[in-house]
């Protein structure tokens, strides 16, 4: 959680607070990359984060000499952090640590404190493999035990007797208490917004494309809500991000549009910390392929806090461009939504140029107080926003579909219904036109903006009435969005035929000709659909 600590420390700085953040880690975590990402961020931001290392000399069961190279103190110094080292059996231990805290508080910047200590027992329940003689030496060294030896024997024995009686009383009370139980097993962590919250709507100039609409929305959010921060790599002017979505914003909102080191996990963790403090962070990840570096922070922290603590929300939005067809190759062309829709509690939105992209992004930031992954297809940035003749399905009782609606257009009694989202929607529209004109088929298109939680009542309920459903996605469709749609339809009694079309489980090629043979295109989709008839 050190990245979260860096974000909380940045929040202290932004508040001009005298507070500091102390993050306590063990020496075993010094092999983790996120530790160094967080220290680097704290150093770059000059945020008041005190990293406290409990140097036990052993991780879980492995001694530190087998897991740590170099000097521990040098790790903090490498990032320019003032570094201190003190042993917990030093008679002046408390005074020295108090001095460290006061120094960090006075400097309003980060620090690195190593505390040499020894672990009294196992890391877990039964994984202590140390020799009995070593454990006895550790017990004799223990500062609390040493303090106890300074007391008269009768006083020490009385204290220890009281302690044992207290622990036994607590144990008996725990054993006698009933097991915890849930009145009802929760279906998810989400709560619908009770009433639409007041929200100023950005004015998007007529004729704007998706890139311009997102830029205008970010500008509006920054201008109208001081809690909004935009964080990511290379967002500063004149560059303005890899796809120029943030162009002009760092000039007009200095200190609130923050260009960061290349540190996807660290900035995601920091954004969680900022969200916990009440900010509304919007993180830009340069390419969706790099989201895998954010996965630990999302899966293990961001989505769990709202479910674990009823009074805690994590209003975090992560924006990222995704998709192929630009010859960027296997590590810059992926559509990884199939990975992230599987994260419990993560809202995944993937709008198209037919959706109100501006409104959806504003909703994600201001009205939905849960972590959101907001996917943007690269090829849609230049597309003009145009709702055409699409209409929204009734949101029914679905979670968040009022904020992230599903659209439809086409025949009311179709021969085939195409389900497509994000950057696949323009291709699905071209497919529909050819099926209608060349094959005289009645075609309907259903375009969800919300992929997770799946709009079961509205979208699945609508598809149940159709005879042929074809789900087209750019992602790897094994174990993906289309698989979940198919499962939901089957569980609901769907009796029609269903076809899934997606990218096979192979790397996406760099050569355009090879890329076209991997990612579904107009002709391959038509060929597969016609095989159904």
Structure explained in plain terms:
With 533 residues, this protein is α/β, with parallel strands linked by helices. The protein folds into two domains: 2-147, 3-Layer(aba) Sandwich (Rossmann fold); 210-530, Rossmann fold (3-Layer(aba) Sandwich), CATH 3.40.50.970. The chain has 19 helices and 17 strands. A seven-stranded mixed β-sheet has the order 6-5-7-8-10-9-15, with helices on both faces. A six-stranded mixed β-sheet has the order 11-12-14-13-16-17, sandwiched between helices. The protein has a four-stranded parallel β-sheet with strand order 1-2-4-3, sandwiched between helices. α2 packs across α10 and α10 runs parallel beside α11. The longest helix has 24 residues, at 153-176. The protein is elongated, with a radius of gyration of 28 Å. The two termini are 54 Å apart. 42% of the residues are buried.
* Count of individual beta strands: 17
Strand line-up in the sheet with most strands = 6-5-7-8-10-9-15
Distance between the termini: 54 Å
- Helical coverage, percent range: 25-40%
- Form type: elongated
How many domain regions?
2
Radius of gyration in whole Å, from Cα? 28 Å
Features:
533 residues; alpha/beta; Rossmann fold; 2 domains; seven-stranded mixed sheet; 19 helices; 17 strands
């Amino acid at each position: 959680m050190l990245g979260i600590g860096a974000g909380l420390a940045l929040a202290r700085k932004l508040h001009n607070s005298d507070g500091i953040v102390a993050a306590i880690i063990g020496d075993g975590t010094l092999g983790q990359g996120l530790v160094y990402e967080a220290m680097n961020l704290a150093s770059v931001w000059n945020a008041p984060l005190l990293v406290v290392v409990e140097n036990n000399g052993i991780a879980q069961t492995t001694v530190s000499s087998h897991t740590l190279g170099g000097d521990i103190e040098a790790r903090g110094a490498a990032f320019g952090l003032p570094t201190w080292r003190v042993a917990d059996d030093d008679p002046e231990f408390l005074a020295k640590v108090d001095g460290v805290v006061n120094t960090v508080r006075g400097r309003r910047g980060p620090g690195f404190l190593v505390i040499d200590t020894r672990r009294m027992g196992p890391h877990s329940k039964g994984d202590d493999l140390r020799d009995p003689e070593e454990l006895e030496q550790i017990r004799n060294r223990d500062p609390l035990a040493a303090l106890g030896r300074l007391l008269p024997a009768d006083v020490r024995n009385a204290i220890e007797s009281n302690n044992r009686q207290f622990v036994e009383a607590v144990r008996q009370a725990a054993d006698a208490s009933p097991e915890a139980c849930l009145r009802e097993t929760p279906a998810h962590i989400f709560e619908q917004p009770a009433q639409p919250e007041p929200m100023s709507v950005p004015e998007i100039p007529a004729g704007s494309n998706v890139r311009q609409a997102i830029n205008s929305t970010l500008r509006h959010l920054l201008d109208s809500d001081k809690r909004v921060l935009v964080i990511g790599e290379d967002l500063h002017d004149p560059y303005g991000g890899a796809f120029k979505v943030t162009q002009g914003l760092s000039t007009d909102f200095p200190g609130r549009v923050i260009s960061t080191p290349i540190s996807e996990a660290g900035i995601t963790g920091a954004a969680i910390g900022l969200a916990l403090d009440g900010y509304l962070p919007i993180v830009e990840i340069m390419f969706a392929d790099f989201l895998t570096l954010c996965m630990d922070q999302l899966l293990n922290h961001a989505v769990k806090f709202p479910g674990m603590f009823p009074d805690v929300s994590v209003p975090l939005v992560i924006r990222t461009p995704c998709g192929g067809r630009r010859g960027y190759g296997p590590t810059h062309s992926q559509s990884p939504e199939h990975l992230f829709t599987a994260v419990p509690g993560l809202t995944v939105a993937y709008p198209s140029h037919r959706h109100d992209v501006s409104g959806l992004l504003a909703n994600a930031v201001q009205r939905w107080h849960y972590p959101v992954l907001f996917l943007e297809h690269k090829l849609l940035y230049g597309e003009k926003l145009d709702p055409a003749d699409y209409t929204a399905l009734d949101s029914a009782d679905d979670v968040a579909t009022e904020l992230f609606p599903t659209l439809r257009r086409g025949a009311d009694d179709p021969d085939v219904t195409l389900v497509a989202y994000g950057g696949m929607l323009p291709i699905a529209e071209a497919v529909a036109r050819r099926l209608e004109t060349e094959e005289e088929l009645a075609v309907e298109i259903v375009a969800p903006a919300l992929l997770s939680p799946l709009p079961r009542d509205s979208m699945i309920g609508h598809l149940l009435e159709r005879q042929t459903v074809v789900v087209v996605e750019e992602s790897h469709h094994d174990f993906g969005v289309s698989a979940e749609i198919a499962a939901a339809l089957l569980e609901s009694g769907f009796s029609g035929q269903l076809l899934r079309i997606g990218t096979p489980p192979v790397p996406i090629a760099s050569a355009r000709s090879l890329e076209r043979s991997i990612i579904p295109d107009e002709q391959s989709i038509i060929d597969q659909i016609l095989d159904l008839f």
